[in-house]
Write the structure tokens for this entry.
Amino acid sequence: MSFQLRYEGAHFQCRSLLILQLVTLLNCNPTQLPAAESFALVDDFNQSAELKFISRTTTETLPVENVGDFSLTRTLGVSQSGNGIVGAYDANITRSGALHAQLDEVRPRVGLDDFGISDFAVDYRISEPLDISVGGQYDAIKFDFLFLRGPRQPDRFRATMWGGLEPSLTGVSLSYSLISPTANNNRFTILMPFENFTTRGGSTPGIYDPAFRFNRILIDFLWTAQTGQFDWSMQLDRISLVNTASVPEPKTVVLAFALIGMFVVRRKFQ
């Protein structure tokens, strides 16, 4: 019995020392664990749709309704202006609860090897015009990727929102583009803050103004003037609206898992 008590005490001291070292290393307050992330779901891709194609023009899926927290209508589309595109595009089929896209080949027109625009798009239409900040609760669109693979990444990964002033809802088009995204074989996140969305003229309207409403959001992966073999693929797990203040910093997440790990070890030796 005395050995068991000494053994438990030694383990407790080691665990306490390790936690203090982690706190010092990460410069965190041990009493402040990360708050739960606040978000509104745009799409978790649990409703199925599929395109398998060799396309020379635009190909679209049938609309899927009641998507996410805003009851959006979602359409997957692929367009190409060269001599054909070979690939696949689906939601909730190749991988459950994920958007899957692959681009195998873009076929050039005869004599125009560098001609063609290829585009994979997710098009959301909104039956009830949306204040995308939801009264200022959210300030960014968050994309949770499972992976983004291939030597030839899109020229642009882009989000565009259309809308305007009620009742006509015309006149406003805001866009944000990530130029040449980097391939990643692991899970990763891309944040697009609303403050970075601009009109074509380059100015940034105040999209938190409750007078603005949006009735369409388009997400797309765009290649220009590229043909040949691509071997590109990606899977997207979730699109959501978030408040960036509630997205945990990496060091805070690491500390949380460290504390959980210490608890599990303690339970194991009890």
